[in-house]
Every structure is written in structure tokens, then in C-alpha cells.
Task: inverse folding
């Protein structure tokens, strides 16, 4: 890939795909992390006299036109406040009015387009839609790592129509994550959680080729435990993946990788903040209850494994950390990662990143990836359409 600092952008209209898919509550941005992550590219372009047109998706609109709850207008206001300069906001993504706004930009000016996914052609990688976007600019920059695994019009098709470059965030994400596979400092410990084995089967398989220790928690651990013959009660389980789980356990043995599963569980009769809880070993799980967090002995086991690591990759919580009775496992793991000294620590995935922020540990993590799905796909070894298009 060629990065945007390889080209003269002064006076050029630069169309930048960013990832401003931020959380909103009643029309207010509640977390501006992804907006700030794009600042190095935006500031470089401003300082070098480019005329900047930003485009992004937000949420999952129907693709049938404007939906107020998914409008990027609140994002434009936040970005304007961060930059200390007005940010123009386009009422759409293409068309005469948007083209006029683009043409009227001055050097260093910033325009944000409305949500790309209000147009169904975006997700279809439609070349006509890409051509309409391309009319707005002279140069294209992809700085949306969080969308790099999507072959969408603003990510893939557009690169065939304009000189195309990588932004600083996209470049940093790829460099950092690729280094985990190419030359990790050892011991290399990976921590995987979340609800479904099916979502993580490829990444587990790939990481078993690289890591020294793999810790598995969250709802996905119960598929592994049931496959080994344990009673898991009403816990989440993907029965069709039990055989695959056993194959992964065998692969860990064959490759000499320490794969650690929970040895105790926090169970509850139902999913709720007020649910009575019971801590039990994996041999004693109640058939009428469900597991919603790793237990204290497992938390300690995982923390010890993390304490000796020189490289850590973490994706997925250890339990339902949003609820107080089931947060202990995730909190313990988060603190264990955050307190490491002289280690490379990488956290990816929305829930893991959210946990880091809940416990105010973000400044103690080496690198927080902005793209959960994209980071997983990269580490799986699966090509990212948005990256391949720039090569």
C-alpha cells in the first residue's frame, strides 16, 4: 500500500473513508474514540492544504433513504468541536447539492457526507454509486480499518476510479496486527471470549499456529466443556461445533500450545442483574442453571498465565460484564493485561474495548484496535477487501 503522505495533496479534493460508526444516545455521541482515531489523517490533510470530504456509515439503516436515528449530523458537530473549526455537513452522499458543497471547499476545509448506508448500493459494492462518490474528489484515502473487511462501494469499488492511498490509522492497524503474526515477543498469550465458537473457529485455528498459551472464556467455553462431557446446564452452547472444538483441543496438544478452559463458573438461574448466583467447579454445574462468567479460580488461573506474557492479544469478554454479578472475570483479565510491563498488548473487538473503557484502563493498553471483525479476519489470514484494493 502507498500511504497518503507519499503524495502532494495541496488544493486537491480528497475523499476519505473513515469509520465514524459511533454509539449514539438521543442524538448525542456517547463515545468519540473512533472520531479521534481518524484525527492524524484529517490533520495531515488539513495542514497540507487538502480539501477534505469525509464519508462513513453508522449503524444498520434499511438502505431506503434517510433515517434520523442513524444520521451523521451529531458526528459533524463533535468533529467540529474537536477540530476547533466548522465542519460542513452534506444532506446526502451524492448528487448536485453534494457536488456543489465539495466544489466550494477551500484548502483545509472539511465536509462530512451523510450516512453511506442510507443508499442500498453502498453494501452492494455498486460501481455506479462508487462513480457518483468519485465525482466529488481527485484522490481517495481509506482510513476505515473497521470497514476494511467489507467489499462495499466506498471501500473497494471506489479504488478503481481514483488514485487510492491508505490513511495513517489503516496503516497503523495493519502494521501492528501483522506484527503479532510475524515476530511476536514470547511468551505470546491470546485471550478469546464472547458468545459463539462459530464466530471464533478460524481465529482459534490460526492462533494455535502462533501462540504459546490460549485462554478461552465467555459463552463459547461451554461448547468446549460439553464436548468434553461436562454438564453445562442451560449455558450457551453450539452443539454442531462440539466436534470442531475437540479438533481444536487436539491441535493445541499436537502443537504444544497450552489451551486453558475455565475450571469454575459463576452460574445463575436466569439472565438478570438481580439473579442469585452460584460459584461451582466445572464438575458441579447445576443442570437447571446457566453459566454467565468464569469463576474466581479461573480468573486467578488466567491472570497468572497473562502475568508472564510478552505479547497479548485479547478479543471477547469472559462473561456478561455489563451486569455486576458477572463482571469479575472480565475485570480481572482486563487488569491483568493492563498491568503488564514491557509487553506488547493489543485489544480488539467492541466488547473487549468497551470493558477496557468501563474499567478506565485504556491508557494502560499498548494498542486498541478500532476494528473487531477486521482485526479477526486479518489475524485469521483472510484477505481484507479494503486492504487488497489498495495494494
Result:
Amino acid at each position: 500500500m502507498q500511504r497518503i503522505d507519499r503524495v502532494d495533496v495541496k488544493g486537491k479534493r480528497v475523499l476519505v473513508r473513515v469509520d465514524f460508526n459511533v454509539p449514539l444516545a438521543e442524538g448525542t455521541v456517547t463515545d468519540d474514540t473512533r472520531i479521534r482515531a481518524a484525527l492524524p489523517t484529517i490533520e495531515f490533510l488539513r495542514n497540507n492544504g487538502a480539501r477534505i470530504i469525509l464519508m462513513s456509515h453508522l449503524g444498520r439503516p434499511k438502505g431506503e433513504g434517510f433515517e434520523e436515528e442513524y444520521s451523521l449530523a451529531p458526528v459533524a458537530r463533535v468533529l467540529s468541536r474537536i477540530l476547533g473549526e466548522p465542519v460542513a455537513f452534506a444532506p446526502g452522499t451524492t448528487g448536485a447539492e453534494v457536488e456543489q458543497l465539495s466544489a466550494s471547499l477551500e484548502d483545509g476545509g472539511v465536509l462530512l457526507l451523510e450516512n453511506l448506508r442510507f443508499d442500498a448500493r453502498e453494501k452492494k459494492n455498486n460501481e455506479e454509486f462508487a462513480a457518483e462518490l468519485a465525482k466529488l474528489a481527485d484522490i481517495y484515502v481509506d482510513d476505515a480499518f473497521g470497514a476494511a473487511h467489507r467489499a462495499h462501494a466506498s471501500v473497494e469499488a471506489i479504488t478503481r476510479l481514483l488514485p487510492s492511498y491508505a490513511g495513517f490509522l489503516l496503516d497503523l492497524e495493519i502494521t501492528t496486527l501483522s506484527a503479532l503474526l510475524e515476530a511476536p515477543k514470547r511468551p505470546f498469550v491470546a485471550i478469546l471470549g464472547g458468545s459463539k465458537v462459530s464466530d471464533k473457529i478460524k481465529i482459534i485455528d490460526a492462533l494455535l499456529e502462533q501462540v504459546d498459551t490460549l485462554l478461552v472464556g465467555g459463552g463459547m467455553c461451554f461448547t468446549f466443556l460439553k464436548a468434553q462431557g461436562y454438564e453445562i446446564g442451560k449455558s450457551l452452547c453450539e452443539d454442531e461445533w462440539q466436534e470442531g472444538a475437540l479438533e481444536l483441543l487436539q491441535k493445541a496438544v499436537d502443537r504444544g500450545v497450552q489451551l486453558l478452559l475455565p475450571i469454575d463458573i459463576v452460574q445463575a438461574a436466569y439472565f438478570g442483574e438481580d439473579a442469585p448466583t452460584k460459584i461451582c467447579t466445572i464438575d458441579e454445574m447445576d443442570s437447571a442453571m446457566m453459566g454467565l462468567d468464569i469463576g474466581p479460580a479461573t480468573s486467578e488461573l488466567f491472570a497468572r498465565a497473562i502475568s508472564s506474557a510478552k505479547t497479548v492479544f485479547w478479543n471477547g469478554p469472559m462473561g456478561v460484564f455489563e451486569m455486576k454479578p458477572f463482571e469479575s472475570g472480565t475485570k480481572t483479565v482486563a487488569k491483568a493485561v493492563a498491568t503488564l510491563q514491557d509487553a506488547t498488548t493489543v485489544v480488539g473487538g467492541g466488547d473487549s474495548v468497551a470493558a477496557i473503557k468501563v474499567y478506565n484502563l485504556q491508557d494502560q493498553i499498548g494498542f486498541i484496535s478500532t476494528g473487531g471483525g477486521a482485526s479477526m479476519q486479518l489475524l485469521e489470514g483472510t484477505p481484507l477487501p479494503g486492504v487488497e484494493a489498495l495494494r
In short: The CA atoms of residues 194 and 316 lie 5 Å apart. The two ends are 5 Å apart (CA to CA). The first helix runs from residue 33 to 37.
